[in-house]
Amino acid sequence: MLESMHISYKIVEPIINQILFGMLDAPKFEDGKADLCIGFLDTKKNTKADFVLVETYISDHAESILKDFDLNDRYTVIQIILSNDAFIGTMIYDVQHGASNCDINYISAIRLGIMDKIAEYYTQNDVNYFVKKFFAFFLSDLFLTNFINDSEITENEYLDILSKCSRDKTLV
After folding, report:
1. What is the mean pLDDT of residues 30-42?
2. Is the distance from CB of 47 to CB of 54 less than 8 angstroms?
3. pTM over 0.90
């Protein structure tokens, strides 16, 4: 019998707020709009030219929040990451192609190594490469979003982003 696991993605909201507004809390919308922070706008402007800037921006902001999470929150974060098979598969590919003598028979060992590193975030509060990389992948679409106004976000746009990124999921 398959058991289901409910994962709350609400924990992602402060990271989204930090990336978009430079603060943990949701913005105060005046006339249905709020200003996006300069760091987000500058990074978004350079997204097409250098996507590494996006990855670095997200990773830095995610790390600043993730390092302050308590043990329960860190457990939720690793549940989110480890439940994303596409991400784990991408990281296996990344590790395989970074190693010159990687034998295809070592995929399970690579997977285990990646999962162990991700688990270190929970056990040691180590916001490592794989944890930061996950959030860079997971939230990179924020920089591809076309907002109605160049430097502002409407409340509806914000709620739509939260709906897409922080909707709870049940895994079977």
Report:
1. 95
2. yes
3. no
